[in-house]
Amino acid sequence: MNLKNILTIVGVSATTALVSVFGYTKLMQSQYAGIQDNGRIPANYAGFFGNNAPSNNVDFTAAATSATPAVVHIKTKTKARQVTTTQKNPFGDMFGGDMFEQFFNGPRVQTIPEQRASGSGVIISEDGLIVTNNHVVDGADEINITLTNKKSYKATLLGTDPSSDLAVLKIEEKGLPFLVLGNSDEAKLGQWVLAIGYPLNLDVTVTAGIVSAKSRSININEKQSKTPVESFIQTDAAVNPGNSGGALINTTGELIGINSAIASPTGSYAGYSYAIPVNIVKKVVNDIVKFGTVQRAFVGISYAQEGLSDEEKAKQGIKDVDGVFVLDAPAGGAANAAGIKKGDVVTKINGVKVSSGPEMVEQVARYKPGDKITINYKRDGKENVANITLKNKVGNTDVVKKEGILDNLGAEFEAVDKKVAAANDISGGVVVKKIKEGGLLKATKMQEGFVITSINDEEIKSVDALKEALKNAKGGSVRLMGIYPGFQGTYAYPLTLPSE
User: Fold this and answer.
1) Residues 415 and 452 sit within 8 Å (Cβ to Cβ)
2) Is 165 noted as a catalytic residue in this protein?
């Protein structure tokens, strides 16, 4: 075979190979939609291969070592107490009569045994301020703090905020390690984070994961508040019972969230955990320290919730929009005063874009009543800007005062006059002078002038004794016993107290 024939064979083979490759490529393009061009980079990868390129040298030791001394073990104790409940007549009206009503609808005294629980907390100042979850300390009679060096302290509860599930404690000590507060707005999807706490009653434990979502609402805080604030940082760092109130930190050791909840069918870790953003924590802690209670601001709108079906959206007239669809802006609210109405779509709060209800709630939660903010909203496709003065829950801009146990009852009290006591054959008591709208007593149908003589069979002779008895029964059901001067008989009013 001569050289000419060899070159011809090589040329034919090369051409055949090129045609085959070209043909196969075209065939694959026709079979698989969206085949990629290796010479082009999608716009969403812009900057990824520059300074933002991921590093292979991820080391958590410095952050974990710095942060763990500032995360504490919280142990609580709730004393045994008696509560009064009412048993309903299971026969309804089938068997009437006083005997059945007294037997089934009469008060029943139930004893709840002593309870112990534990959780985690984060020291945020060198003089002993500690932030944790409200549900960790709710109803506790004793709160004990143990540091990583095994030193223990009695803690004082400065205040709670059930809406955000936060509480602030104080221990008397100086020179304590504490965590630097970061900026939760800077947390990004895919960012490494560490969860630190005392899960399952173990010693201090560190787990790692990434930020898997932001501004999540899982409707858990509505169990303890009528005005829940939820805009959680979702992570896949392992969190179990006992981690509640512990720290979520970034790789530089800054606090970016307080671990609060897990998504689980079993009650233990099953893949996702949720932390309260530290920017909300800062506001809540500052308010509790300064005012004793949170100064919560309200825009004054109701908005479309996430996860509604197309049928539910159609029924309520909700459109799919990039923003927060306003269902109502009631009269007297801040939004109504600024001209916002049903059908508007809120797109920004003080210049920060909001795409969902939780994002809007998170932004508003950073302000207090009386603060002036701007709200961008769309109406009929046109962008508008409104200047709004935020209000508190009762519709004004006054500072909200911390409610005491007697404030919750919604009445004015004074010790019964000695002559009135003697005339009615009682040793003493507390007169309900004036019953206010919205209080717990208003719902009981109690009448003004009623004299409280005992609570859960504990004799009451002064307003201080009334307050102490209610304090000891916090978060439970009580039975107020007493008389109406000049009338025969003793009257009982069952009452369920809110948790402080």
Assistant:
1) no
2) yes
